[in-house]
Design goal:
about 290 residues; alpha/beta; Spermidine Synthase, Chain: A, domain 2; Rossmann fold; 2 domains; 7-stranded mixed β-sheet; 11 helices; about 30% strand; globular; PABS_CS
């Protein structure tokens, strides 16, 4: 097993100590370990927590907790999808827990949803222990590819209206997803007018990762923007999204809005919050864009 369970859970508490956030940690009280195994790619831990429901952990880092997952899943999916006037074909890279699929499936105009996940172990664990997220796999429009996302992109160019990359942090198997060549591959797989939305790390911790990546892809994409959401179980309580377009000037203003029925089902996303997500604190605005 890649990680020692005794190092992760001490005196009944799970402790997340990540290499990308030195000097700080996140702890949750554990009521029951549901599963802990090593897949072909990473250490997978699932436990029941006292205050956050079921929690999925990959290589010692929290990916999902039932209490707050909706803020991440809804924003990473609905910002790009509602920023597009008529998305028909959507690719999700990563996101093996199924939460992004669940949100994409709310868009009745989408005709095809492809899930490309390298680690089938994440899908298996999520279907067993996180059915409220994994129900996204039940949609008949979904097809699943268990393979490397970069390879899939190379084989499917000029194919997708929206590509959503729901990745873990840039260490281990997900490191390639934060590099310029991967973004170039996504660009080639977008149709004209298409949108890419990727997990964009934390403004409080990772501006040294965010800015160089955004700068490097601006020469390729028509627009490159940073938005964010908040949730308690991610480092510093915040996570960002990098949104990049092919032949589109911005993602800040939604082209469509959820109907009343869908809006009542959503717990976080609103059209107003869509626009507000791009309004950055002064320090972040200066660091990423160089100006207020």
């Amino acid at each position: 097993m890649g990680l020692n369970g005794k190092d992760l859970i001490v005196d009944g508490w799970f402790h997340e100590r990540g290499v990308l956030w030195p000097g700080q940690a996140m702890s949750l009280k554990v009521t029951k370990v549901l599963d802990h195994f090593q897949s072909d790619f990473q250490d997978i831990l699932v436990f029941e927590s006292e205050s956050h429901g079921t929690v999925l952990v990959l290589d010692g880092v929290i990916q999902v907790s039932e209490r707050d997952e909706f803020s991440y899943q809804e924003m990473i999916a609905h910002i790009p999808l509602f920023a597009h006037p008529n998305p028909k074909k959507v690719l999700v890279i990563g996101g093996g827990d199924g939460g992004v699929l669940r949100e994409v499936a709310r868009h009745v105009g989408v005709e095809e949803i492809v899930e490309c996940e390298i680690d089938e172990g994440v899908i298996i664990a999520s279907k067993k222990y996180l059915p409220t997220l994994a129900k996204g796999y039940d949609d008949p429009r979904v097809t699943v590819q268990i393979m490397d996302g970069a390879k899939f992109l190379a084989d499917n160019q000029d194919s997708f209206d929206v590509i959503i990359t729901d990745s873990s942090d840039p260490v281990g198997p997900a490191s390639v997803l934060f590099e310029t060549p991967f973004y170039n591959s996504m660009y080639k797989s977008l149709r004209e007018g298409g949108i890419v939305c990727t997990q964009g790390e934390c403004m409080w911790l990772h501006l040294d990762l965010i800015k160089p990546l955004m700068d490097s892809i601006r020469q390729t994409y028509s627009s490159v923007e940073y938005a964010y959401t908040t949730l308690p179980t991610y480092p510093s309580g915040q996570i960002g999204f990098i949104l990049a377009t092919k032949g589109r000037t911005t993602c800040k203003v939604p082209e469509r809005k959820p109907d009343e029925t869908i809006q009542q089902e959503l717990k976080y996303y609103t059209p107003q919050l869509h626009q507000a997500a791009f309004v950055l604190p002064a320090f972040c605005q200066r660091a990423i864009y160089g100006t207020l």
